[in-house]
Amino acid sequence: MKTLSTRLALCGVLALAALPLTAPTAQADAHARAADPLSRFHSQRLDWKSCVTGPDDTTGKELERAGATCADVTVPLDYTNPGGRTIKVALSRIRATDTAHRVGPLLLNGGGPGGATIGDPPWIRGALKEVAGRYDIVGVDPRFVGRSTPLDCEWPTGTSLWGAGARFERAAAFARDLAERCRRNAGDVIPYATTRNTARDMDVIRAALGERKISYLGYSYGSYLGEVYATMFPRRVERMTLDGVIDPADYSPRLLRPMESANRAALEDWAAWAASRHAEFGLGASRDAVLKTVTGVYEASSRAPLAVGPYRVDDRAVPVILFSGLSQDNDQAYGEFSRAIRDLARAAQGRPVEPSPALAQTLRFVLTGEDSSYGSVQSAILCGDVAGPRDPEVYRRDIEEGRRTDPLLAPLTRNISPCAFWDAPREAPTRVRGDFPALLVSATGDPRTIHAGALAQRRNWPSSRLVTLEGPAQHAVFGVYGNECADDQVRAYFATGRLPAGDVTCRP
C-alpha cells in the first residue's frame, strides 16, 4: 500500500538528486518545496556535539567514553502540515571504524513504546563484536521520549498497567482520569504520538544522515516499529533484525491479553528456581509452596494495603510487580524478583520492611509520578495507533472470565486502560506489507512478545528467517541472554546481508 509519506519520500530523493550546482532562485525553491514538502527536513545539516548534558548525565558520559557524539534532528509535529510546528528528535552515533567495509547506519529501537534508546549504541557495539565496525550505530530517542521533546501528562504513576483489584469501578475511574490528564496537559501533541509518525521520523533521520538506506535492529515494540517502517519505506531498508517479534495482527491497546499463559509459565519457572533456593529466600521449598506465598501476598494486599517502606501496595499494584519481574530468565533477575517477593511476604505478615533496591525502583515507577512521561507516551502511542474498546463492560466481563483461570495476572492483562477513554486515532492502523526479508529472533518462553507472534510474522513474511531460542522465559535475546548460537546468527547476517538458508533453532 502506497501512503502519502511514501510518495513524498520518493519524490524527496529525486529532488535532492537534481539540485542545481548554482545558488537556487526563489522560483527554484518554490518548485523544490512543491516536489517535496519535506525537503527542508531531508536536507538539514546535523550539528554533532558532546552527548553529556550536565554533571549528572550518566548516559551521556557513557556515550562519550564510547566515542559517541549526539545531534538533534528537526521533524514536523504533523506530517500533513510540514510547514507548521516542529519538534526535535535526539540521536547518538558511534561512527564506523571499518570504513573499507562500511554498510551504513544501523538505527536502534529498544522497545516500549516509550523506551529511550539514545544510550544503547555502546552495548550494541559490544554485542556485534567485530561486525560493529562496519556500521554507524545510531541510538534514537523516538519523538516525545527521553531527550526528544518529551511528552508528559503529569500522571501520578509511570504506567497505565494496573490490576483491576476488587472494585472494577475504581479501575475504570482511574483509567478515565489518566486519559483526561493527557487531554488536559498534553492535548496539543498527543494526536501526533504514533508509530507511523515515528517511522516517518526515521526516514527523515535517514535523509539527514545523507544515506540512501538504513539498517535496523528493533526489540519488542521496536519489532512493530520495524514492521511499520518496512511497510511505509520498503526501499529504504538495507538489513533488518527484529528481536521479540510482535504479530501486527495482535498489536493494539490490548496487546498483553494473549500473553497470560506465557506469563503464568514464567511465574512457575521462577517459582521452581526460588524453591531450590529456599534456604536463601524463604519463599517455600517446592514450586507450589512458592506460588502459595505469592497468592498469599496478593490476598493480603486485597484486604489492606501492604506497608513497604514509605509505600502502600494494594491489590492493583501487586500484579504489576509480578508482571514486571517476569521478563528475564537468569539468576540475577530471578534473585532480584525473589527478594522483592520476600519483602512483600514479610509486609503481608505485618513485619516492618524496607524494600530491596530493585523493588524500591519498581514501586517508585508504579506508585509515584517520577516516571510519568514514560507511561504517558506509551499510552499515547498505543491509543493513537489502534482504537481500544470504548465500553467499560467489555473489560469487566473479560476480567471476570479471566479470574477463573488466572486470578493473579488476568485482572492486569485484561484490565481497562486509558485507551477506553481516548480520542479516536487520526490514521488507520498500518497494514503491514505481505513480505519482507528480515531476520526474526524469538525465545519460545518469552512472556512479553510471545513466540506465537514470531511464528505468525514468519508466515506473514515468507522471505524472512526465524532464529528460535528453545526454552527460556526470556524477553530479548541478541546481546541480552548470552546465547552464542543466536548471537552468531545475528552477527553473520549484519556482516554479510545474507539470511540463513532456513530457520535456525538454538538451545541454551
Automatic annotation (TrEMBL):
A Gene Ontology molecular function term of the record: hydrolase activity
Keyword terms: Hydrolase, Signal
Signal peptide bounds: 1-28
Domain of life: Bacteria
Domain Peptidase S33 tripeptidyl aminopeptidase-like C-terminal as annotated: residue spans: 417-506
Family matches, as InterPro entries: AB_hydrolase_fold, Pept_S33_TAP-like_C, Serine_prot/Carboxylest_S33
Database matches in Pfam families: Abhydrolase_4
Record carries keyword Membrane: no
Similarity field: Belongs to the peptidase S33 family.
Protein's name in the database: Alpha/beta fold hydrolase
Organism of provenance: Streptomyces roseirectus
